[in-house]
Amino acid sequence: MTRFGYTLMTEQSGPQALVGYAAAAEQAGFDFLVSSDHYFPWLDSMGHAPYAWSILGAATQVTERVELLTYVTCPTMRYHPAVVAQKAATLGLLSNGRFTLGLGSGENLNEHVIGQGWPTVAVRQEMLEEAITIIRRLLDGDQLTVEGDYFRVDQARLWDRPEQPVQIGVAVGGAEAVRRFAPLGDHLIATEPSAHLISGWNDARDGDGLSTSRAIGQIPICWGPDKNAAIDRAHELFRWFGGGWQVNADLPMPAGFEGASQFVRPEDVGSSIACGPDLDELAESLRPFWEAGFTDVALVQIGNESQDRFLDEIAPELLDKLRASAPSD
Q1: How confident is the model at residue 328 (pLDDT cuts 50, 70, 90)?
Q2: Which domain holds residue 293?
């Protein structure tokens, strides 16, 4: 059965609003919540970038049922992997086992702030592999000393951690990443509805005798009572979205995304992101994910001003349509 989530989009809303949206999303009937983890918004017009881990901690206390997930955290530069493990274990306890740690190799936009430069893709993948190994061992209860290629850990131990270790999702975008990370993570995370990614991930895990994974995707929509106004809002805030991962991972500042997307037209955004009041059209935009085999899909509702009405009035009906259309087993 496909599960549907709501995105706490830290780039477009402030911390108090996001905690309120978490409670409202559970009330609306979403199965899980994902949170981005950014130091900058993609575009200045988005206007926000609060600390995701504080918001998630607060969200554990205003929700009871929904799962919580980072989508995704980079555990290699802004955060040392030993600190990520401590944060994940604490959220696992605060949420009573509802937290999953989503990890990825990050974006220059967020990681350059510590002044250590931006590694090549190959190095970022090596760093992520080493970081996941450290995080996994600490979540399993090891007292750990490591002298790695990228990280040092000196007698680290997590004193407060859940009885069942927090599970780890890993964001991947190609065959090499699948080969490297399928044995290390519990679940696959991807933003493209690719059946090939899922089959490759599952094959790699089957070959190592590992358990079945979830495949967790994400897609933006822009509900609004006026279709043209919704397209304009999506263009204002999300025109960076079509740049592709190679662009999104490497540009260092919102100004770079402004420049890279300056010739993207509203009609271009409207053809790639479902916008407007038609709930059937919005629901249909998720079909490629469940047809590709994704078990979980998180929605991004574009625009801070639209969230309250979307969650209170629109989301319950939209979820009914999604659950009626998606596979039931």
Answers
A1: confident
A2: 3-325
